[in-house]
Design goal:
about 375 residues, five-stranded mixed beta sheet, 5 strands
Length: about 375
Amino acid sequence: ETPLFIKSNALYGIDKAKNAIRQKGYSVLVEGQMDLIMSHQAGFKNVIAGSGTALGSGNSFEVIRRLSNNIIFVYDADPAGEKAAERSADIALGLGMDVKIACLPDGLDPADAILKDVEIWRDALKNAKHVVEFVLDGVIKSSPDERRTARSVVEKVLPFVARLDKSSEQSHFLKIIKEKTGISESALGDDLRSVIRKGRADAFAKKTGIESPPIRNSASGLGSAHGSAGSSSASASAISAPTRNDSILRKAVGLYFWQKSSKKDLENPPEKYFDFENFAKKLSEILEKNLEDIIKEVKTDESALAFEAEAFYANSRSVEEEASNLLLILEEDVLKQNLTKMMKEISEAERTKDEANIGDLSKKWQITAKKITEIGKKLNR
C-alpha cells in the first residue's frame, strides 16, 4: 500500500459499473475481483468489488452512494465473509444507505455460482435480505434458547436498527423482530433506546478516551425473553450487571474479626497481619455505613466469621493483599450499583427532555465507568 493506494478503500470496477448502477437503482458489492469479472460477463453490470476485504472507510461508500443509495453486499459464505459484510453494512447504514445482504449456498462465491448456474447468482440477488433481517436470522439460527436469543438480539441486531435514520423504519424492524422472536415491542423499544444512548456515549468515549455506558437489556433481563423486568449489560468495557456479592462482604467482616482477635506472636508471622482498624474504616467509607450496621447485615456470629476467615486466609501469601482486594471488589460493586441508578436517571431525563441533566449525568457515568475499569486493572482482570 501507498498513500495513493489504500487497499481497504479501493473500489474495483467502479468506472465500468457506474452507469449500470444509476440505471438499475442499486449497486452490488462483491469481495473478489474474479467475482466482479464473472458477474459482468454474465450481464450483471452494476457489480463492483473491494480488494479482498471489507471496505475500511465511509469515503468509498460516499462514492457509491452518489450513484445510488441502495446496495447489496455479497461476501463468501463463511463466518469471516459474514463478518466482513456486517462491518461494511454498518458503515453504509451510517451514511443513510439502504443495505441488503445476499446469501449464496455454502462453499460458493459469486464466481463459482455463476460458473455452476447463473440462476443461482440471480436468485441470491433477488432474495437478498435487509441487513437487520440477515443478522436477526443468523442470531435465531445460532441461539440455543429464548434467553440467549434475546440477549443476542440486543447485542447484535439492535445496533443495526439504531443506525436507521427514520423512526418509521426502526418501528418496522422492531415489529419483524417481535414476530420472529416473541420479544415484546415495549422491551425492544427500551433496549433500542439504550443502544442509541450507548452509541452517543461511544462517540463521546472516542473523543475523551473514557469508557461508554453498557446496554441495559430489557429483553433478556431477570424475567423471560419476552420483556420481563430486569437488565443485563454489554459494552466494550464488559462491565457486568451490578449485584451485591454477599460472600465477599461476609469474608471482609470475617477478616476483620479474625484480625481483631489474633495475637501477634512468634507463631504468627507479620505477613498474617494488617491494620484491621484502617480496613474497617475503609469498609465503612465504601459502603457508606457504620461498622455496626455492616456487621448486622451479615447476620452471623462473630466467632464463626473469624473461624471462616482464618480457615480461608491462614495460608495466604499476604493477608493484607487479600484484604485490599476484598475492598476493591466491594467498591466495584457499589460503583456498578451507582451506574444502574444513573441509567434510570438518564432515561427519565431523556423522557422529560432535560438536556442539561442528561449532560451532567453522562459525565458522571463516564467517570464512574472509568473508576470501575481502573479497579479491574488493579485486580488483574
